[in-house]
Request: fold
Amino acid sequence: MKITVLDRCTITTGDVSLAPLDAVGEVTYYDLLPHEQIADAIADSDAVIVNKARITDEIMEQCKNLRFIGLFATGYNNIDTKAAAKRGIVVCNVPGYSTDSVAQHTFALMLHFASRADDYAASVANGDWANAKAFSYLAFPTSELCGKTLAIFGFGTIGKAVAKIGQAFGMKVIASVRRPQSYDGVEFVSVDELFARADYLSLHCPLTEETQHFVNRDTLAKMKPSAVIINTARGGVIEEEALTEALNSGMIRGAGIDVLDTEPMRPNHPYLTAKNCYITPHVAWASIEARSRLIGLVAENLKAFQNGKPINQVN
Reply:
C-alpha cells in the first residue's frame, strides 16, 4: 500500500515515533504543504493521512488510486466526506485518544485563575520575593476550586472526564445536554442556568451549526462577573469579539483559551488585547502519550481497512 502522510510536523517533532505507520506500507511524509500542492503529493497514493489539510472533491478527482483517507484527529470537517463516499473512499477518524490530555489541560487553564502559580513564579523570577519584607507576599489573590460550580457544556467522553476531576477537587458539577441523561454527582440544567450559575464554564462540544458562537453577547450577559470561561473544544464555539468585550468591560473575570476560530493566531487577534485572557496554542490534545496513542490508532485504522473491515469510519 502506498501511503502519503501530510502535516507530519503537527504530530511529531521527532519526539514521537512514526514506526507504527511505517509498518503498514510504503510511506511518504510531508510537513505542511500549500493546498494547491496536495493533489500532486498524493496523486498515486492508495491512502492519505492528514491532520488539518483539506481533502476536497477536486483533489479526490485528481487522485484516482485513492481509497482511504485517515485523520490524525477526531474532527473531520476538513474532509469532503460526501464526495469520498460517492467515490468509494473510506474516511476514518480517531475518537477518544486525547481524553486524558484535554481534561488535564482544562484544569491547567482553570488553575491559572485559581492558584496564580505562573504569576507568582514570574514575580519571584523578577526579584519580588527577594525584596519582600515578609516571608510571603500577597500580590495575586488566589482561590480554591473546592465549592465552586463547574459548568460543562458538551458532556461526551471529555466532558465526563472533566466532571470527575472537578468532583475530585470538591467542585459542584452541573452540565447541559440535549438528550436527558444521568451521571453520578452531576446536576443537569438548562443552558440559561448553566451560564448563570457557572464559576468556571468549560466547553467540550463539537463545532456544529447549533454550537457556532454558542458563547456570544447574550449568553455572556447571563454570567457572573467572577466567572471564567475555559475553551479546549473549538474556537468557533465562541464569538471572539464578544468575549473580548466581556473581558475588557469586566463582564466576566477571565478566559482560558486553547483554540481559535482561525489558526494559527493572526497577529491582530482581539484576544491579544483582552484582559485576563490566558492563551495556549491548541496543545490541549498534544501530550506525548496522546500523540503516541494517536499514531498507533491511525495505524490500526489502516490495518483494518487493508483487511476489509474498516473501523472508525465516518462516511
